[in-house]
Amino acid sequence: MKIHLIAAARPNFMKIAPLYHALQKEKWAHTLIVHTGQHYDLNMSDVFFQDLRMPEPDIHLGIGGGTHAEQTGKVMIAYEKVLLENQPDLVIVVGDVNSTLACTLAASKISYPSIPPRNGPDDQSAAHNTDRPVIKRKTLNRPLVAHLEAGLRSFDRTMPEEINRIVTDSLADLLWTPSPDGDENLLREGVDKRKIVRVGNIMIDSLEMLRDHIENLHVHKDFSLDKNTYGLITLHRPSNVDNQKKLTDLCETLIRAAKIAPLVFPVHPRTKNNLSKFGLLKMLAGADGMILTEPINYIRFMSLVFDCRFVITDSGGIQEETTYLGIPCLTLRPNTERPVTVTQGTNKLCTGTNLIEYVGSICRGDQVKYSIPELWDGHTADRIVISIKKLINEAMD
Ligand code: UD1
Questions:
Q1: Pairing between strand 263-266 and 290-293?
Q2: 235 lines ligand 1 (CB under 6 A)
Q3: What is the SS3 assignment for 145?
Q4: Would you say 309 and 230 are in contact if contact means Cβ atoms under 8 Å apart?
Q5: Which atom of ligand 1 is least distant from the CA of 100?
């Protein structure tokens, strides 16, 4: 079975790595990593492949940045060519970035050319050509599409990722969900329940795979900080960083928070561009207790998470990692597509106004109650492999 694993942007890499490793153990699976190139800087992409022990991508589309339509269109055009040449049986997309949507659209609409008989109409040899798709060949002349991290909804359609999630889920043939709310959202949208398989949270697999490595690093020492005394910031959502007034207000709040506890802030390229454009970079970099750095690779970043007191973020994945680790997470967003991190985990949705109050409470030692959601256990990739095997068996019936 020829499988394409689609990688595109930083949060995708820790989602495909465990699956790549699990599929490598399966003789029936021929897995190719397709990198769209949505993220391209060394420290936004390559270092993650190294950390996560993945080889160089088999196919690189080299797309780069652009507007939403440009990025989506460029990925679709480039990936359509790859699909026609390579003819995978299964395309696995992860998360909710523009490339997830683009590859799903291209794969769902492709029609593989029929196989011309080499020696006339009676020739059966082409049907036995192992380079051709084997799954559902009689009824479907395209690959199946599976979405890993399906069913998440913020119910906020101003977020580009929400649009990507809705369209991807409505097209995908197989929907691997991380938590019960994912199943419920899909069922409410009318998805056939036979398409939905709850597999758990794949990012926890990456974290567990590299736990020993992460725990031995203690990166906070490089910043002359003590364990459990500092906060860690990530900020890159357009709704937080693209608007000058919003970003200015947030910077002022973060500067106040840094007076309560030192803050390490690896700055995303989008955020850095905007901080410079709005003339905020110097003020932030010079603030007491604020430590700005370049984006940090997976293992070093997770080391900072493991040893911090709290996280301030607008990322999706970090809300989940902190819930798993029992670390307080303050999410600078009005909503989350990962509600289980709030109802069960350590996550609190914050505005700029109440952030300082929460930071104060955490630093005073107020306890955060939490439990780890079901199936967030480091074995999600194994459950996905079982789900794929089931797909093969069904197709052969
Ligand atoms: C994208 C995803 C977002 C995800 C985030 C993680 C979409 C709609 N958004 O947002 O869901 O949370 O990735 O980082 O797909 N840039 C670089 N080097 C890079 C990557 C980006 O300089 O390696 C700069 C470019 O100027 C680019 C900008 O950052 O235009 C934004 O990158 P883009 O991939 O368009 O969106 P993100 O904000 O990273």
A1: parallel
A2: no
A3: strand
A4: yes
A5: 15
pLDDT at 353: 86
Question: Which superfamily is assigned to 2-200+377-396 in CATH?
Answer: Glycogen Phosphorylase B; (3.40.50.2000)
For residues 193 and 187, the answer to whether their CB atoms sit within 8 Å is: yes
| For ligand 1, atom 30: residue with the closest CA | 65
Hey, which of 97, 98, 149, 276 would you mutate to test ligand 1's pocket, going by the most ligand atoms within 8 Å of its Cβ? 97
Give the residue whose CA is nearest to atom 4 of ligand 1. Answer: 97
Identify the residue with better confidence: 351 or 186.
186
Would you call 177 helix, strand, or coil by DSSP?
strand
If you measure from the C-alpha of residue 366 to the centroid of ligand 1, how many angstroms do you get, rounded to a whole number? 35
Mean pLDDT estimate for the chain: 94
Residue 213 appears among annotated catalytic residues:
no
Residue nearest to ligand 1 atom 19, measured at CA: 39
Q: Which of 54, 92, 75, 61 is nearest to 46 (CA)?
A: 54
Q: What is the pTM of this model?
A: 0.93
CB of 314 closer than 6 A to ligand 1? no
Cβ(14)–Cβ(298) under 8 Å?
A: yes
Topology alike, domains 2-200+377-396 and 209-363: yes
Q: Supply the pLDDT for residue 2.
A: 96
The pLDDT of residue 9 = 97
Q: How far is the CA of 35 from the centre of ligand 1 (A)?
A: 14
What are the domain boundaries of the chain? 2-200+377-396, 209-363
Whether 239 is in the pocket of ligand 1, judged by its Cβ within 6 Å, is no
Q: Domain 209-363: give its CATH code.
A: 3.40.50.2000
Q: How far apart are CA 210 and CA 51, in angstroms?
A: 9
Name residue 307's amino acid.
Answer: D
> Is any ligand 1 atom within 6 A of the Cβ of residue 180?
no
Whether the pLDDT of residue 392 is over 60: the answer is yes
Active-site residue, selected from the candidate residues 21, 236, 268, 379: 236
Q: Which amino acid type is present at position 94?
A: V
- Out of 14, 39, 100, mutate this one to test ligand 1's pocket (max ligand atoms within 8 Å of CB): namely 39
